[in-house]
Write a structure and sequence with these properties.
106 residues; mainly beta; five-stranded mixed sheet; four-stranded antiparallel sheet; 1 helix; 9 strands
């Protein structure tokens, strides 16, 4: 399923964005933001890796791969700019939390 969220505001000013298995989170970026951290949620009972993905301009990119007990979180350094349509999703089961900052701080 696909959900439209205010990703930038949730990443920067709120609880972050939680990616759930099988869901895609899409928006056109209104104000540029920096994606700075991905962390496994507490719901991840599997030991299998989870890959955080982004789709930008119809191209898909792996942002990081997390694994319970080995790599529970990963610092990120990605800026998404105004006007880009982006989709975040994950491959694997469980949940991943994303957080960020305004790009103007970099």
């Amino acid at each position: 399923s696909e959900e439209t969220l205010s990703l930038r505001d949730r990443l920067i000013f709120g609880s972050g964005v939680t990616l759930d298995s099988g869901k895609r989170y899409t928006q056109t970026v209104e104000k540029s933001f920096h994606l700075s951290m991905a962390a496994l949620g507490f719901q991840n009972s599997s030991t299998s890796p989870v890959t955080v993905m982004a789709e930008v301009d119809k191209a898909q990119f792996a942002l990081c791969t997390l694994q319970p007990g080995k790599i529970p979180q990963q610092p990120l350094d990605y800026c998404f700019t105004e006007g880009e349509e982006i989709t975040f999703f994950m491959e694997g089961s469980g949940d991943v939390h994303l957080t960020g900052l305004p790009c103007s701080l970099f």
